[in-house]
Amino acid sequence: MAIEVAPLPVPPTADAEKLKDFGREVKGVNPGTLSPEEFKEVHDLLYKYGALLFRDADLTPEQQYALTKAFDPSSESYGHGNNKTGGEKKSILHPDLKTIPRVPQVQLIGNGNVYNHEGLAEAMLKHPSHTTFHKTRVSPEDEAKGYTRFYRWHIDAALYDLSPPKVTTLYGVKVPQGQHQTVRYDDGTGDELEVPLGTTAFVDGRNMFNILPPELKSLAVRTKVKYAPHPYVWMAPAHALPTGLGIMTEGLELPYDELPPWEESKLKVLPMLWKNPVTGELHFQVHPCGASQLLIDPLPEGATRDGALFPDGAHLKDLKEVRELLYKMQRPAIAPKFVYPHDWKEKDLVLFHNRGVLHTVVGAFTQDQVRAFHQCNLAASDDPTGPTAEDVKKWA
Protein backbone atom coordinates (compact mmCIF):
# COMPACT_ATOMS: atom_id res chain seq x y z
CA MET A 1 0.00 0.00 0.00
CA ALA A 2 1.30 3.44 -0.88
CA ILE A 3 1.85 6.08 1.78
CA GLU A 4 -1.28 8.10 2.43
CA VAL A 5 -1.29 11.44 4.25
CA ALA A 6 -4.20 13.14 6.01
CA PRO A 7 -4.36 16.42 7.97
CA LEU A 8 -4.34 16.18 11.76
CA PRO A 9 -7.66 17.11 13.37
CA VAL A 10 -7.46 20.81 14.20
CA PRO A 11 -9.05 21.59 17.57
CA PRO A 12 -11.91 24.13 17.53
CA THR A 13 -9.73 26.48 19.59
CA ALA A 14 -7.16 26.74 16.78
CA ASP A 15 -6.89 28.94 13.70
CA ALA A 16 -7.32 26.27 11.02
CA GLU A 17 -5.69 28.47 8.39
CA LYS A 18 -2.55 28.94 10.49
CA LEU A 19 -2.33 25.20 11.24
CA LYS A 20 -3.15 23.95 7.73
CA ASP A 21 0.52 23.20 7.01
CA PHE A 22 1.32 21.77 10.43
CA GLY A 23 1.17 18.05 11.12
CA ARG A 24 -0.03 15.07 9.10
CA GLU A 25 -1.25 11.55 9.86
CA VAL A 26 0.66 8.96 7.84
CA LYS A 27 -1.17 5.80 6.77
CA GLY A 28 -0.29 2.73 4.77
CA VAL A 29 3.17 1.97 6.18
CA ASN A 30 4.68 0.45 9.31
CA PRO A 31 7.05 3.04 10.85
CA GLY A 32 9.16 0.27 12.37
CA THR A 33 9.94 -1.40 9.03
CA LEU A 34 10.16 1.41 6.46
CA SER A 35 11.93 0.68 3.19
CA PRO A 36 14.57 3.22 2.11
CA GLU A 37 12.10 4.71 -0.36
CA GLU A 38 9.36 4.95 2.27
CA PHE A 39 11.75 6.50 4.76
CA LYS A 40 12.79 9.19 2.26
CA GLU A 41 9.13 10.10 1.81
CA VAL A 42 8.53 10.17 5.58
CA HIS A 43 11.73 12.22 6.06
CA ASP A 44 10.57 14.92 3.65
CA LEU A 45 7.02 14.91 5.04
CA LEU A 46 8.36 15.51 8.54
CA TYR A 47 10.41 18.54 7.54
CA LYS A 48 7.52 19.89 5.49
CA TYR A 49 4.82 19.50 8.15
CA GLY A 50 6.72 19.54 11.45
CA ALA A 51 4.97 16.54 13.04
CA LEU A 52 3.80 13.14 11.82
CA LEU A 53 1.33 10.78 13.49
CA PHE A 54 1.19 7.01 13.00
CA ARG A 55 -1.84 5.37 14.66
CA ASP A 56 -1.89 1.78 15.98
CA ALA A 57 1.86 1.40 15.53
CA ASP A 58 3.59 -1.71 16.88
CA LEU A 59 7.09 -0.46 17.68
CA THR A 60 9.88 -1.99 19.74
CA PRO A 61 12.46 0.25 21.46
CA GLU A 62 15.03 -1.05 18.95
CA GLN A 63 12.83 -0.02 16.03
CA GLN A 64 12.15 3.38 17.58
CA TYR A 65 15.87 4.00 18.02
CA ALA A 66 16.59 2.88 14.44
CA LEU A 67 13.86 5.13 13.05
CA THR A 68 15.10 8.13 15.02
CA LYS A 69 18.72 7.48 14.02
CA ALA A 70 17.77 7.22 10.32
CA PHE A 71 17.17 10.98 10.29
CA ASP A 72 20.79 11.54 11.33
CA PRO A 73 22.80 8.33 10.78
CA SER A 74 25.95 9.70 12.46
CA SER A 75 24.08 10.39 15.69
CA GLU A 76 24.36 7.84 18.47
CA SER A 77 23.76 9.00 22.04
CA TYR A 78 20.55 10.16 23.68
CA GLY A 79 20.02 13.90 23.23
CA HIS A 80 21.06 14.63 26.82
CA GLY A 81 24.04 12.28 26.67
CA ASN A 82 22.46 8.93 27.58
CA ASN A 83 21.21 10.48 30.81
CA LYS A 84 24.54 12.10 31.72
CA THR A 85 22.81 15.44 32.29
CA GLY A 86 19.50 14.03 33.42
CA GLY A 87 21.34 11.76 35.83
CA GLU A 88 22.85 14.78 37.57
CA LYS A 89 20.58 14.87 40.61
CA LYS A 90 20.45 18.66 40.69
CA SER A 91 19.02 18.72 37.16
CA ILE A 92 15.33 19.43 36.70
CA LEU A 93 15.28 16.51 34.25
CA HIS A 94 16.39 13.98 36.85
CA PRO A 95 12.93 12.80 38.07
CA ASP A 96 11.43 12.60 34.57
CA LEU A 97 13.62 10.06 32.78
CA LYS A 98 14.11 6.30 33.10
CA THR A 99 16.36 4.55 30.59
CA ILE A 100 15.36 1.36 28.76
CA PRO A 101 18.31 -0.85 29.78
CA ARG A 102 18.98 -2.60 26.48
CA VAL A 103 18.39 0.52 24.35
CA PRO A 104 19.80 3.41 26.42
CA GLN A 105 18.87 5.95 23.73
CA VAL A 106 15.17 5.32 24.49
CA GLN A 107 13.67 6.78 27.66
CA LEU A 108 10.59 5.69 29.58
CA ILE A 109 8.55 8.70 30.69
CA GLY A 110 5.09 9.00 32.14
CA ASN A 111 3.28 8.76 35.46
CA GLY A 112 2.69 6.20 38.19
CA ASN A 113 4.30 2.83 38.84
CA VAL A 114 5.16 0.62 35.87
CA TYR A 115 6.24 -2.97 36.44
CA ASN A 116 8.21 -5.48 34.33
CA HIS A 117 8.55 -3.12 31.43
CA GLU A 118 11.25 -3.67 28.77
CA GLY A 119 13.78 -4.93 31.29
CA LEU A 120 12.81 -2.57 34.11
CA ALA A 121 11.45 -4.52 37.09
CA GLU A 122 9.84 -1.39 38.49
CA ALA A 123 9.82 2.22 37.37
CA MET A 124 8.28 5.00 39.46
CA LEU A 125 7.35 7.67 36.93
CA LYS A 126 6.44 11.26 37.67
CA HIS A 127 4.61 13.44 35.15
CA PRO A 128 6.23 16.89 35.33
CA SER A 129 3.83 19.42 36.79
CA HIS A 130 3.78 23.19 36.86
CA THR A 131 3.16 22.97 40.62
CA THR A 132 6.84 22.21 41.25
CA PHE A 133 8.41 24.55 38.67
CA HIS A 134 6.32 27.71 38.30
CA LYS A 135 6.58 30.75 40.56
CA THR A 136 2.84 30.53 41.19
CA ARG A 137 0.44 27.65 40.79
CA VAL A 138 -3.18 26.88 40.06
CA SER A 139 -4.89 26.47 43.41
CA PRO A 140 -5.69 22.91 44.50
CA GLU A 141 -9.38 23.85 44.39
CA ASP A 142 -9.13 25.00 40.77
CA GLU A 143 -6.94 22.03 39.90
CA ALA A 144 -9.72 19.76 41.15
CA LYS A 145 -12.04 21.57 38.72
CA GLY A 146 -9.73 20.68 35.82
CA TYR A 147 -7.60 23.82 35.50
CA THR A 148 -3.93 23.38 34.73
CA ARG A 149 -0.98 24.99 32.91
CA PHE A 150 1.65 24.37 30.28
CA TYR A 151 4.70 22.97 32.08
CA ARG A 152 7.71 24.20 30.08
CA TRP A 153 7.88 25.20 26.42
CA HIS A 154 11.13 23.79 25.10
CA ILE A 155 13.28 22.10 22.48
CA ASP A 156 14.68 18.66 23.30
CA ALA A 157 18.36 19.49 23.67
CA ALA A 158 21.16 19.38 26.23
CA LEU A 159 22.13 22.94 25.15
CA TYR A 160 25.66 22.27 26.37
CA ASP A 161 28.38 20.37 24.49
CA LEU A 162 25.90 18.26 22.45
CA SER A 163 24.09 19.44 19.31
CA PRO A 164 20.27 19.68 19.41
CA PRO A 165 18.56 16.54 18.08
CA LYS A 166 16.94 16.80 14.66
CA VAL A 167 13.93 14.61 15.45
CA THR A 168 12.13 13.35 18.54
CA THR A 169 9.93 10.26 18.47
CA LEU A 170 7.23 9.73 21.11
CA TYR A 171 5.36 6.44 21.42
CA GLY A 172 2.30 6.02 23.62
CA VAL A 173 2.48 2.60 25.32
CA LYS A 174 -0.11 3.25 28.04
CA VAL A 175 -2.37 6.28 27.81
CA PRO A 176 -4.89 7.00 30.60
CA GLN A 177 -8.20 8.49 29.51
CA GLY A 178 -10.02 11.14 31.48
CA GLN A 179 -11.75 14.47 31.46
CA HIS A 180 -10.33 17.30 29.39
CA GLN A 181 -8.45 19.99 31.30
CA THR A 182 -8.30 23.75 30.80
CA VAL A 183 -4.92 25.42 30.48
CA ARG A 184 -4.83 28.85 32.09
CA TYR A 185 -2.13 31.20 30.89
CA ASP A 186 -2.47 33.33 34.07
CA ASP A 187 -0.50 36.19 32.52
CA GLY A 188 -3.20 38.85 32.57
CA THR A 189 -4.48 38.09 29.06
CA GLY A 190 -7.34 35.83 30.14
CA ASP A 191 -6.16 33.24 27.60
CA GLU A 192 -7.34 29.68 28.23
CA LEU A 193 -7.14 26.49 26.18
CA GLU A 194 -9.14 23.29 26.57
CA VAL A 195 -6.86 20.27 26.11
CA PRO A 196 -7.11 16.47 26.33
CA LEU A 197 -5.78 14.93 29.53
CA GLY A 198 -1.98 14.71 29.44
CA THR A 199 -1.64 16.24 26.00
CA THR A 200 1.65 17.19 24.39
CA ALA A 201 1.18 20.69 22.98
CA PHE A 202 3.06 21.91 19.91
CA VAL A 203 3.62 25.25 18.21
CA ASP A 204 5.23 25.76 14.82
CA GLY A 205 8.51 27.68 14.80
CA ARG A 206 7.76 28.94 11.28
CA ASN A 207 4.64 30.63 12.54
CA MET A 208 6.53 32.01 15.55
CA PHE A 209 8.79 33.85 13.09
CA ASN A 210 6.20 34.68 10.44
CA ILE A 211 3.80 36.52 12.76
CA LEU A 212 6.49 38.85 14.14
CA PRO A 213 6.33 42.53 13.15
CA PRO A 214 9.12 43.69 10.79
CA GLU A 215 11.36 45.16 13.49
CA LEU A 216 11.36 41.86 15.42
CA LYS A 217 11.90 39.82 12.25
CA SER A 218 14.94 42.01 11.60
CA LEU A 219 16.19 41.39 15.12
CA ALA A 220 15.59 37.63 14.93
CA VAL A 221 17.48 37.18 11.69
CA ARG A 222 20.52 38.99 13.17
CA THR A 223 20.63 37.32 16.60
CA LYS A 224 22.41 34.37 18.18
CA VAL A 225 21.54 32.92 21.58
CA LYS A 226 24.16 31.91 24.13
CA TYR A 227 22.99 29.24 26.56
CA ALA A 228 24.12 28.78 30.14
CA PRO A 229 26.48 25.90 31.01
CA HIS A 230 24.56 22.80 32.12
CA PRO A 231 21.35 24.82 31.78
CA TYR A 232 19.04 22.27 33.44
CA VAL A 233 21.18 22.29 36.57
CA TRP A 234 21.63 26.07 36.38
CA MET A 235 17.87 26.74 36.17
CA ALA A 236 16.76 24.09 38.67
CA PRO A 237 16.40 26.42 41.72
CA ALA A 238 14.56 29.07 39.63
CA HIS A 239 10.85 29.43 38.94
CA ALA A 240 9.04 29.52 35.61
CA LEU A 241 6.53 32.04 34.33
CA PRO A 242 2.86 30.98 34.47
CA THR A 243 2.79 30.36 30.71
CA GLY A 244 5.75 27.97 30.98
CA LEU A 245 7.55 30.19 28.45
CA GLY A 246 10.72 31.06 30.33
CA ILE A 247 12.03 31.80 33.80
CA MET A 248 11.32 34.52 36.33
CA THR A 249 14.41 36.63 36.99
CA GLU A 250 14.85 36.39 40.76
CA GLY A 251 18.57 35.63 40.98
CA LEU A 252 17.88 32.04 41.99
CA GLU A 253 19.88 30.34 39.22
CA LEU A 254 22.79 28.25 40.45
CA PRO A 255 26.02 30.27 40.27
CA TYR A 256 28.34 29.14 37.49
CA ASP A 257 31.04 28.15 40.01
CA GLU A 258 28.60 25.75 41.69
CA LEU A 259 27.70 23.92 38.49
CA PRO A 260 29.26 20.62 37.42
CA PRO A 261 32.60 21.21 35.66
CA TRP A 262 32.16 23.05 32.36
CA GLU A 263 34.25 24.49 29.57
CA GLU A 264 33.73 27.72 27.67
CA SER A 265 34.40 25.91 24.38
CA LYS A 266 31.42 23.59 25.03
CA LEU A 267 28.88 26.36 25.61
CA LYS A 268 26.23 26.52 22.92
CA VAL A 269 25.81 29.69 20.85
CA LEU A 270 23.05 29.02 18.33
CA PRO A 271 21.14 31.13 15.82
CA MET A 272 17.76 32.43 16.95
CA LEU A 273 16.35 31.18 13.62
CA TRP A 274 17.06 27.65 12.37
CA LYS A 275 16.86 26.90 8.67
CA ASN A 276 14.72 23.98 7.50
CA PRO A 277 16.94 21.66 5.43
CA VAL A 278 14.09 20.58 3.13
CA THR A 279 11.89 23.68 2.74
CA GLY A 280 14.48 26.40 3.37
CA GLU A 281 12.05 28.14 5.75
CA LEU A 282 13.19 29.84 8.95
CA HIS A 283 11.97 28.54 12.32
CA PHE A 284 12.20 30.59 15.53
CA GLN A 285 13.92 28.05 17.78
CA VAL A 286 14.93 29.25 21.23
CA HIS A 287 14.69 27.37 24.53
CA PRO A 288 13.74 30.39 26.66
CA CYS A 289 14.57 28.75 29.99
CA GLY A 290 18.20 28.05 29.14
CA ALA A 291 19.10 31.28 27.31
CA SER A 292 21.57 33.54 29.10
CA GLN A 293 22.82 36.08 26.52
CA LEU A 294 21.92 37.49 23.10
CA LEU A 295 24.50 38.42 20.47
CA ILE A 296 23.01 40.77 17.87
CA ASP A 297 24.72 41.61 14.59
CA PRO A 298 24.44 45.15 13.18
CA LEU A 299 22.10 45.86 10.29
CA PRO A 300 23.55 44.88 6.93
CA GLU A 301 24.69 47.64 4.63
CA GLY A 302 21.79 49.32 2.89
CA ALA A 303 19.12 48.25 5.40
CA THR A 304 16.80 50.97 6.68
CA ARG A 305 17.41 52.05 10.24
CA ASP A 306 13.89 53.44 10.70
CA GLY A 307 12.37 51.67 13.69
CA ALA A 308 15.19 49.12 13.80
CA LEU A 309 16.15 47.61 17.15
CA PHE A 310 19.86 47.57 17.96
CA PRO A 311 20.81 48.81 14.46
CA ASP A 312 24.50 48.82 15.39
CA GLY A 313 24.35 45.38 17.01
CA ALA A 314 24.55 44.53 20.70
CA HIS A 315 25.63 41.94 23.24
CA LEU A 316 22.88 41.60 25.82
CA LYS A 317 24.09 40.04 29.06
CA ASP A 318 21.45 41.27 31.51
CA LEU A 319 19.33 38.18 32.19
CA LYS A 320 16.14 40.15 32.78
CA GLU A 321 16.54 42.07 29.52
CA VAL A 322 17.31 38.86 27.59
CA ARG A 323 14.27 37.08 28.99
CA GLU A 324 11.87 39.96 28.48
CA LEU A 325 12.92 40.35 24.86
CA LEU A 326 12.59 36.65 24.15
CA TYR A 327 9.16 36.59 25.81
CA LYS A 328 8.00 39.50 23.68
CA MET A 329 9.06 37.59 20.58
CA GLN A 330 7.79 34.12 21.54
CA ARG A 331 4.58 34.74 23.51
CA PRO A 332 2.37 35.64 20.49
CA ALA A 333 2.94 32.18 18.96
CA ILE A 334 1.66 30.23 21.97
CA ALA A 335 -1.73 31.97 21.86
CA PRO A 336 -4.51 29.37 21.97
CA LYS A 337 -5.29 29.72 18.26
CA PHE A 338 -1.76 28.60 17.31
CA VAL A 339 -1.43 25.56 19.62
CA TYR A 340 -1.90 21.96 18.49
CA PRO A 341 -2.64 19.79 21.57
CA HIS A 342 -2.32 16.14 20.58
CA ASP A 343 -5.06 13.81 21.82
CA TRP A 344 -3.01 10.70 22.62
CA LYS A 345 -4.27 7.17 22.02
CA GLU A 346 -2.39 3.98 22.87
CA LYS A 347 0.06 2.95 20.13
CA ASP A 348 0.23 6.48 18.76
CA LEU A 349 3.67 7.27 17.40
CA VAL A 350 4.42 10.97 16.91
CA LEU A 351 7.56 12.17 15.16
CA PHE A 352 8.31 15.86 15.41
CA HIS A 353 10.92 18.12 13.87
CA ASN A 354 12.77 19.10 17.03
CA ARG A 355 14.56 21.87 15.16
CA GLY A 356 11.30 23.30 13.88
CA VAL A 357 8.74 23.18 16.70
CA LEU A 358 8.47 23.97 20.40
CA HIS A 359 6.50 21.65 22.63
CA THR A 360 5.46 21.19 26.23
CA VAL A 361 4.04 18.67 28.64
CA VAL A 362 0.63 19.80 29.87
CA GLY A 363 -1.60 19.06 32.80
CA ALA A 364 -1.48 16.74 35.77
CA PHE A 365 -2.35 13.16 36.67
CA THR A 366 -3.31 11.48 39.90
CA GLN A 367 -0.92 8.81 41.16
CA ASP A 368 -3.22 6.00 40.03
CA GLN A 369 -3.39 7.28 36.44
CA VAL A 370 -0.59 5.24 34.88
CA ARG A 371 1.00 6.68 31.75
CA ALA A 372 3.94 5.11 29.92
CA PHE A 373 5.63 6.58 26.84
CA HIS A 374 8.84 5.79 25.00
CA GLN A 375 10.81 8.86 23.97
CA CYS A 376 13.85 8.94 21.72
CA ASN A 377 15.98 11.77 20.42
CA LEU A 378 19.66 11.70 19.54
CA ALA A 379 22.30 14.39 19.94
CA ALA A 380 22.85 15.54 16.37
CA SER A 381 26.00 15.23 14.29
CA ASP A 382 26.03 19.00 13.72
CA ASP A 383 24.53 22.23 14.97
CA PRO A 384 21.52 23.85 13.28
CA THR A 385 22.13 26.14 10.32
CA GLY A 386 21.08 29.76 10.70
CA PRO A 387 19.88 32.34 8.20
CA THR A 388 21.89 32.85 5.01
CA ALA A 389 23.25 36.23 3.94
CA GLU A 390 20.28 36.42 1.57
CA ASP A 391 17.88 35.77 4.47
CA VAL A 392 19.49 38.55 6.51
CA LYS A 393 19.27 40.95 3.58
CA LYS A 394 15.62 40.01 3.00
CA TRP A 395 14.39 40.34 6.58
CA ALA A 396 16.76 42.85 8.22
TrEMBL record:
<dbReference type="GO" id="GO:0046872">
    <property type="term" value="F:metal ion binding"/>
</dbReference>
<comment type="similarity">
    <text>Belongs to the TfdA dioxygenase family.</text>
</comment>
<keyword id="KW-0560">Oxidoreductase</keyword>
<dbReference type="Pfam" id="PF02668">
    <property type="entry name" value="TauD"/>
</dbReference>
<keyword id="KW-0408">Iron</keyword>
<dbReference type="InterPro" id="IPR003819">
    <property type="entry name" value="TauD/TfdA-like"/>
</dbReference>
<keyword id="KW-0223">Dioxygenase</keyword>
<protein>
    <submittedName>
        <fullName>Clavaminate synthase-like protein</fullName>
    </submittedName>
</protein>
<dbReference type="InterPro" id="IPR051178">
    <property type="entry name" value="TfdA_dioxygenase"/>
</dbReference>
<feature type="domain" description="TauD/TfdA-like">
    <location>
        <begin position="17"/>
        <end position="376"/>
    </location>
</feature>
<dbReference type="InterPro" id="IPR042098">
    <property type="entry name" value="TauD-like_sf"/>
</dbReference>
<dbReference type="GO" id="GO:0051213">
    <property type="term" value="F:dioxygenase activity"/>
</dbReference>
<keyword id="KW-0479">Metal-binding</keyword>
